């Protein structure tokens, strides 16, 4: 499930997830695993962690698919 959620952050950069802090935390937990970095590369891993940190801190203002 986490890989699909993490694709959203990668391919829909305007998505706003800060409304769902538990989901953001789950995504960060999954993306921060050593195995995730090995499978997808450290650049992708760091990109996701940076984006999710911003989401967690409420710095992302865009809406999910422009609706929510």
Q: If you had to describe this structure to a student in words, what would you say it looks like?
A:
This protein is globular. Helix 3 packs across helix 4. By secondary structure, the chain is an all-alpha fold. It has one domain (2-66). The chain has four helices and no strands. The chain has helices at 2-11, 21-31, 34-40, 42-56.
Give structural attributes.
mainly alpha; 4 helices; 68 residues
Secondary-structure map:
Elements: H1 2-11, H2 21-31, H3 34-40, H4 42-56
Helix pairs in contact: 1-2, 2-4, 3-4
Global Rg: 11 Å
Arithmetic mean pLDDT: 86
**Domains, number:** 1
How large a portion of the residues is in β-strands, by DSSP E? under 5%
End-to-end separation: 21 Å
Beta strand count: 0
Mind summarizing the main beta sheet?
none
Name the poorly predicted regions: none
Give the ordered list of helices and strands: HHHH
In which range does the helix fraction lie? Answer: 55-70%
Q: Give the oligomeric state of the chains in this entry, treating copies of one chain as homo and distinct chains as hetero.
A: single chain
Provide the structure class: mainly alpha
The backbone outline, from C-alpha atoms, is: globular
Query: So how many helices?
Result: 4
């Amino acid at each position: 499930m986490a890989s699909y959620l993490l694709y959203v952050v990668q391919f829909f950069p305007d998505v706003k997830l800060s409304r769902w802090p538990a989901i953001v935390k789950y995504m960060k937990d999954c993306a921060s695993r050593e195995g995730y970095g090995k499978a997808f590369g450290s650049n992708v891993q760091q990109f996701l962690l940076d984006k999710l940190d911003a989401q967690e801190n409420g710095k992302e203002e865009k809406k999910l698919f422009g609706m929510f």
